[in-house]
User: Fold Glycerate kinase from Actinopolyspora mzabensis.
Amino acid sequence: MTGHVLVAPDKFKGSLTAAEVAEAVTAGLRGRMPAVAVRGSPVADGGDGTVRAALATGRFERSLVRVTGPTGRRVDAEIAVGETTAVVELASASGLALLAPGEFDPLRASSHGTGELIVAALDAGVSGIVLGVGGSACTDGGAGMLTALGARLSDAAGNPLSPGGGGLERIAEADLSGLDPRLADVDLVLASDVDNPLCGSSGAAHVYGPQKGASAEQVRRLDGALERFAEVIGRATGESAADRPGAGAAGGVGYGAMTALSARFRSGSDVVLELVDFDRDLAGAALVVTGEGALDEQTLHGKVPAAVAARAAEAGVPTVAVAGKCSLSRQRLRDGGFTAVYALAHLQPDPARSIEGAAHLLQRVGEHIADDFL
Assistant:
């Protein structure tokens, strides 16, 4: 075989990080063909795993930051700091994965810690910040994030709001004059694979609120609170952006970032592929291996494996996918640019055992890929 194999997977959520997936597949490939040239390039879609993908390049340094978690408990989060750019991951500060199921608090969970991470990035002196959003525990429109950055949000009596989306039901005024002045000199990119608007049936509360523990009544309240928040922020900024794609990302953090912080919305997959210099690693490749925990219709709509396959196709390089399970038909896989898919469910149909033994199963998959393609 002429050329190398580029192994560029996303995480297997709840099982393996993207780097661990890449390591297991690589071990399988080399187990069959010890001399094969393999390049590992773990990727992400802007959600959890984005900072780790940046750190894996070796061009960013890890910085540990103590911040306020989604329900007020202090947590340790990390950012990746490069020469000119810092990568901030909402999930590490305000993510649902930080809470046990019994701790979900849809009305009071806050994005405050994400704002504290942005402050840490500003302290690092960078000129650009990538804000990767996804997996949030909050539906607060980014109110907590803005407060951490110096904004003052208050009720009709001038009192500060309580944390979370529920507190937005009382919002009457937004004073953004106290926002950290360093934000004006920073290019802030909102990296997300979610293009939902802020409010309505396809908005942040209705689509994602139930995943965060919100009842039907709480969803209704949160949606109304976000509408009120948008009215107040719209008056403060002179801009109505509630219907912009990405406004509903991360419980509305996308809205707060794009309006009050002038963030640019971009596909999280594209942003991460640029961060890890994917095109450089793709040059000269004979085969690309990508994947994620579940290959389904969502994969074909903004998820990073589809973005990897699209770039590989442009370069004339075939792409195969690895996954815990796959619900896509052969035709849909071809539509997505995948030559073949290797699902762990075919090797181990018991989901619990598949998750527990994912690394070993992926190594076996790597062996099968070597037999079939190399």
